[in-house]
Amino acid sequence: MKIGVYPGTFDPMTNGHLHILKEASALFDKVYIAVLTNSGKSPVFSVEERLSMLREVIASEGLSNVETDSFGGLLVSYCREKGAEFIVRGLRTVSDFEYESGLDAVNRHMAPEIKTVYFMAALEQSFVSSSYIREMGHYGADISGLVPSAILNTISERLNQQ
Ligand code: COA
Fold it and tell me: CB–CB of 89/52 below 8 Å?
């Protein structure tokens, strides 16, 4: 069974992340979308809020082979715990490539048996990032089309309270 782990902060999930998740769901038998709990970032949405939003999106998209989870510590340790041979990441721009090359080198050094698979972001989503969504939402801008419709209201209402 081919198992992939799609890790990230997902603060909040965007349509860019959803595109990558769908690609992974089509390629692997099982995918864990895993929220990093000890990120150096200071997330706006709690881990439980992010997991709940991920679950809503997975249900509304009918991605039956995708499971939500959270993890702390090293990503490769989490992958080993789950029996996953593959890490899933998305690439939007050249700067993503530079960042991902470093991450890949470190992960391969620690766990050569785990491979990272990259999907290109959909062109129309390549400018989307969670921080843009947070800022737009905070100032009441329209974020429809940029985040999954199943969680649009949850995100808009929550960010508007900030
Ligand atoms: N579409 C939209 N946005 C995307 C995207 C895509 N396809 N791909 C990345 N992004 C955005 C995210 O929204 C986020 O935006 P933000 O900075 O504006 O919030 C940014 O790109 C990067 O976020 P993310 O993909 O969540 O990665 P990350 O840098 O937060 O976390 C981990 C990356 C989880 C893989 C990494 O930190 C990790 O493995 N941590 C565990 C510790 C570890 O093992 N480290 C390894 C070396 S020691």
Answer: no
Distance of CA 101 to the CA centre of its chain: 18
Full-model pTM: 0.95
- Residue 108 among the catalytic residues: no
pLDDT in tens for each of the 162 residues of the chain? 999 999 999 999 999 999 999 999 999 999 999 999 987 889 999 999 999 999 999 999 999 999 999 999 999 999 999 999 999 999 999 999 999 999 999 999 999 999 999 999 998 989 999 999 999 999 999 999 999 999 999 999 999 887
Q: Tally helices (H) and strands (E) across the chain.
A: 6, 5
Ligand 1 pocket mutation, candidates 71, 86, 130, criterion most atoms within 8 A of CB = 130
